[in-house]
Each structure stands twice: as C-alpha cells, then as structure tokens.
Amino acid sequence: FYINEVLVPVSLEAMTLQGLTEFLTSISAIKKYRQELDIKYVLPTFFDKRLKKSEVILEKLREIYGTKLCTPIRTNVRVSEAPASGKSLFEFAPGSPGAEDYRELIRKIVGDDKLFK
To answer: How distant, in Å, are the alpha carbons of 22, 64, 67, 88 from that of 71?
Structure first.
C-alpha cells in the first residue's frame, strides 16, 4: 500500500450511511496490515439545501466525523457538464458553485491560497 490517508466521498443520498459503513469495514480490514492508514477527510457530495435529507445526513456525518468533515460539494449542473466540454470545471465554469466548493476542498487539503491567485 502506498497511502496513509483516505478521502471518502459520501453522496448525501438515502443509502449513504449504509454504504459508508461497508466501506469503513473494508478500511478496518486493511488497517490490520497498514495501521497508519487513516480516514483524513469525509467529503459530502450532491448537497442540495432545498432537500431536508441533505441536511439530516450532513448533520449525522458532522456528529460522527467532526473536523474530518469537509464543506459539502453542492449539487451543480456545471460539475456534470464540464467533462463533456473537454475542460476542467475550473476552466469550464470557474465561478460556479461547484468550482467554489472544490476550491474550498483544495484549500482544506493543501492549505495554500496561492493556488488561486
């Protein structure tokens, strides 16, 4: 294994917590052989503030993961349109909510605002 840290994307959908539990079981099995392996970040995706389920699942994740929980990536059509354009999201729709959310993720992980100057 070549990694010590894991970023876990978690869709804010109904079966998410069950799928996350199964994934964590796999991580636990790997940790028997690689004890330093750690879930560093949990990244909520498909966040839609109009839907109560998004808030409910996000709050549950916040209770469980605390500071490991990243700012959610909001549902945004530009995120799904960018690949078809042959451009990155940052080239295709730099001012979109999705691009803003991914910038925030990069800041959290890399910790370098100079990337966006």
So the answer is: 23, 15, 10, 20
